[in-house]
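Q:
Got a chain?
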Amino acid sequence: MHKKIYGLALALIMVCSLFVLAGCEKDQEEKIVGEVNGDAITQKQFDQHYRLVLNYYEQNYGEIDEKKDKELVENLKDSTFEDLVIQKLIWQEAERRGMKVDEEQVEQDLAYIREQRNQQEENGYEKFLKENGFDEEFLKQEWKTQNMYLQLGEEVTKDVTVTEEECREYYEQNKEAFSHPGGKQIYHILVETKQEAEEVLAKLNQGESFNDLAAQYSIDPGSNTRGGDVGVVNQDTNFVEPFKEAALELQPGELLTTPVETEYGYHIIKAGQQVEEGIWPFEKVQESIEAYLLQDKKNQVFSEFLENLRANADIKDYRKS
């Protein structure tokens, strides 16, 4: 039961842009609806977080009629309480370990939200706060909670590892997931300006390594650590047309002598071998399998850690008493 709640708690912490908060009276703020190891959950905290939960649900599954969907509303309110319990446990454990919020990262995240909202419309950030009924301090606190959640998760799971044997076992059991269409293996180095592209091309013409230059110059985070490898490309690949057209015209091993401009920047493109439809060998996908299994294992370990915290906590729910 609670493992599902932990997943929802994390998702809700990370969707600050969906918050819709109701105004709260002073007596609501002071009323206590629960306790976690003596740490109070107030009515104001509950009401605010319930609006968050409700909004998140409606964004994903459609609007709720609170008069007709009474059982669902009660379930969402119970989830709200559980979310707040987990948040309290996270802060208590972080304090016990002497952990501190990364204030600089929080400020960077908030600055990004401001920038995005103001780009959408004039004074967009201020309107966002006003329309949703909360101040920046509340938003900052939610972001601090997210930051602490992630920090604690990394701390708890820092010793988790994945073996090559586990990767091979996953590969053998899920081979169809590693099938690929026929096409041409394509590599690229993506830079912001034409001048940068020409400088990189000059280095390539002088014999410097494409892999090394991709790691040094490419702004594509999805390929710059893999030597610029973007995978197998064919006519059905969902890439921007100028890039795809230029890539497919290249012969295996050929380097495009003129950078291709797209909405993302300037691409220096190189063709690898022609690939027939099939299943990638283990060595080709081992790194991605390891990353997937490691994150999955960390999620499980942290979920069990939170479940254990909850099982040993003194939790009081006054809502229905």
Summary: Residues 1-28 have pLDDT under 50 and may be disordered.
